[in-house]
From TrEMBL:
One of its GO terms (molecular function) is acetylgalactosaminyltransferase activity. This is Hexosyltransferase. It comes from Acropora cervicornis (Staghorn coral). It comes from the Eukaryota. It is a single-pass type II membrane protein.
Amino acid sequence: MGVFTVFLYHRYYLKRIHQVKLKPDLLYGDRYLVDLELGIKHKKGSYRFSEHVYQKKGSSRLCSPKGLTWNKAATVYFVLPVKDQGEWVYHFINEITAASLLTKDENFHVIVVDFESQDISISQAFDTDLLRNRHTIINMKGKFYKTLALNKAVEHIPSEHDLLFLFDLHIDVPADIMDSVRKNTIQGHIVFCPQVGRLNCGSSSVDHKGYWELEGYGLVGVYKSDWIRFGGMNTEEFKYKWGGEDWDLLDRIINLSLEVERIKYPGLYHHYHTKTKKWG
């Protein structure tokens, strides 16, 4: 692998390959997200190498693409619009708590936009040791208005250099979710839209029988600065109806020449649920 291999050979040795993702480009060459554990020669301990690398078409060398360095210290802001979804709010709380405890990653914040939920006290639910100082509640009145809720939530994110992740209450939280959002989202360059595994009715995250959602782009990892550039959610055309708002958003992302990172994400499973009397 040319210069990259020589660099590794002289200073490090490979201990473990955690993950290698390929983003092919038939015209220019391939980009890889390489996640390795390297040992340091003649020293104890190990070093994590997790970077985007590029292989130009026709070349055996790997190089570091300009501007594609991900922010390992970025706070991930989960954005959740809610109305009368108490059971699923607790599902999210349990999932995000387990993920954080397992990975020791506490660099996140949850923004909940609540439309007068009657089946749960959001403030009490988030009053836990982990989440007490890692959540913000925005109270809104009236009919559930998803696109407006998402825009309001992003307004409360303090810095344009912060990283937001539009999420869904009915989805399991993989242990490495914060790390994955950071790695796959790069300010000014890449927006992360992972594919969700939709579970069949009666299936669970253990047997995970279902299908990959190929058309939905509801989960979005993006920096606030890029969100501002493409204008956020379209609140005029998508007020109370469901469907299409994610594709509208995707069109504007692509029109800005931002790259969309689209991968199947094992563990990111959407549980089947009835929509009866929901989001009214």
